Fold this protein.
Amino acid sequence: QKEVEQNSGPLSVPEGAIASLNCTYSDRGSQSFFWYRQYSGKSPELIMFIYSNGDKEDGRFTAQLNKASQYVSLLIRDSQPSDSATYLCAVLSGGSYIPTFGRGTSLIVHP
Amino acid sequence: SQTIHQWPATLVQPVGSPLSLECTVEGTSNPNLYWYRQAAGRGLQLLFYSVGIGQISSEVPQNLSASRPQDRQFILSSKKLLLSDSGFYLCAWSRIAGRTDTQYFGPGTRLTVL
């Protein structure tokens, strides 16, 4: 059974700090990895995806993938109170179009 | 650009009543379509997915059903709602973007069964 694990949090960081969100997965055949942000009462919105080992940067967001260790992380630089949300990690195995979602990590950025 | 619509946005229904939630996608053709449910404080549960008109796969046996009468229309139904059907229902579509199949979610329908 494919599993995606995230610490439920909440992760609390001060404004301006770097928030680090982590996700581990069980399926070694996983090939694509996604981060979604979900504000309370709203639907998930895609932040970014990554499928190669290493870092991928998009604005204040950096996704990091380490397939050997089976983890993917999301770094948020210069965190803002508006970043306060639940962050969902999703993993897609090769040849599949059904991702496995983690339960999400709640992030709180306090002024 | 592609957009996905869901309605209604909120719904309050009595136990035993029928249900029909609708999802439509604009700006793309032959998308994969998905229905998820997110119960309070819980993760996303995949209910159904469809790779084409009339093609529905069920992930969880329950009193819900899905249909895809048109390429970009996905409907979630129930003949008799249960209390446990309460939750946030999300429709999603996906397409190949680069090397990967990326899902995009609609705004969701919040269903309360009383």
Notes: The longest strand of chain A covers residues 30-38. The CA atoms of residues 28 and 68 of chain A lie 9 Å apart. Chain A touches chain B at residues 31-32, 34, 36, 41-46, 49, 51, 88, 90, 92, 97-99, 101-104 (CB under 8 Å). The radius of gyration of chain A is 13 Å.
